[in-house]
Amino acid sequence: MGFLIRFLVILFSLISPIASAENGVSEHKILIGQSAAFSGPAAQLGIQLNLGAKAYFDHVNAIGGVFGRKIEIVQHDDKYEADLAAVNTRLLIESENVFALFAYVGTPTSNAALPIFTKAKVPFFAPFSGAQSLREPFNKLIFNVRAGYNDETEHLVDRLVNTGQKSIGVFYQNDAYGKAGLVGVERALKKLNLPIIETATVERNSIDVNKAVDRMMAKKPEVIIQISAYSSCAAFIKAMHRRGYNGQFYNLSFVGSQALSDALASEGSGVVISQVMPFPWSSANSPIVGEYIKVMKKAGIKDLNFSSLEGYIDARIFVEGLRRAGQNLTRERFIAALETINMQNYDGGGFDVNFSPSNHNGSKYIDMTMISKDGKFKD
C-alpha cells in the first residue's frame, strides 16, 4: 500500500502544471532572455528597446503578472557583435534556462543566434531586424513583429521615385544587416528599371567613413539611402556636409531615429527615416501610443521614441501570447497561442498584427518621418 501511495505521488508530480513546465517557467515567474547592444556605438538601440519592453512587463507584473507569474528579463550585452551574441545565447539557453529569447538587436547578432535557438527549440520573439534570413525559410520558432527590410526599402524607393528623384546612392554597413538592406534597395529599383548610382561601405561599430565619403562624392547622387546604425550614419552625414554635399539622406528604421537625431544635432534637419512603428508622441490616431505614453510616464520615463515604443509593443504582444497559452505554459503552447493572434481577434490599438501557423511576420506597417530644425520629428 505504501508503495502505491508513493507511486501516485510521483505520478501526480509529473503531470502537475508546475512540475511539467518548461525551462524558465515556475509557479511565480517566467524568465526570458535578451542579448542586445547595451554598450558601444549602437548602445541606444538595445537600451531604448529594453526600456519600453520592461515598462510594459513591469506594468503587467504590478497587476499580478500572467496567471500569477511575473515576467523577468535577463539581459546580456553583445555590443552588436555576432560572436558575443552567440555566446550570450548559449548562456541564456543552457545555463540560465530561459523560456524564450526576446528582442535581440540586429541582423548579424540574430543570425548568429539562429542555429543555437533552433537546435534547442527555444522561441525567438521580435528581433529588431527586418532581414529575410529571419523570415525565409520559415522557422516556427521565429516571430517577427516589425515589417521586413524588403517592405521598408520598397516603400522608401517608391516614395523617392514618385517625387522625381532617380539618382540614388547607397551607404551601407558591411555586414549581414547592411547587405540585406542593399538587396532590398536593389530589388525595389530593379522593378522600376533604375540602377544604384554608387555604393559605399562602413564596418560595423566603426565611424571611419572617409573612404565612403570620397567614393560617394565622386558621383554625388541626389539621394543617399543609409543602411547602418546611428553613429556611422551621423558621421557620414556630417562628413558629406563638410565636403559640400547638399543632397538628401534617407534611412531605414533600424538606424535608431532619436539616437541619430541626437548625434546629428543641428545637422539633422531634413534627414528622412522610414518607420515601422506608429508616431510615439501623439495618440490622436493610435490608441496604442496613448497607452504607451501613460505606462512610460508611470514608470518615470520621460524620453519617448520609436525604439522604446517598439519594445513596448513587442512586450504587449508577447504577453498576449502567454495569456492565450493558458496556465500550463509550455513552448509549444506558447507558439500555438501566438499563431492565433490576428487583427480579427486582437486589439492592437491601431497597430495591426497578423500571425498564423504559416505566417510569423506580424506587420507590414511603414511610415516616413523627417527630422526638423529643432531635432524633433515630423510625421
For the structure shown, list the relevant keywords.
globular; 12 strands; disordered N terminus; about 375 residues; 12 helices; five-stranded parallel β-sheet; seven-stranded mixed β-sheet; alpha/beta; Rossmann fold; single chain; about 40% helix
Structure description:
By secondary structure, the chain is an alpha/beta fold. The protein has 2 domains: 13-148 and 285-365, Rossmann fold (3-Layer(aba) Sandwich), CATH 3.40.50.2300; 149-275, Rossmann fold. It contains 12 helices and 12 strands. It has a 7-stranded mixed beta sheet, sandwiched between helices. It has a 5-stranded parallel beta sheet with strand order 2-1-3-4-5, sandwiched between helices. Helix 8 packs parallel to helix 9 (257-264). It is globular, with a radius of gyration of 22 Å. The N and C termini lie far apart (74 Å). Residues 1-19 have low confidence and may be disordered.
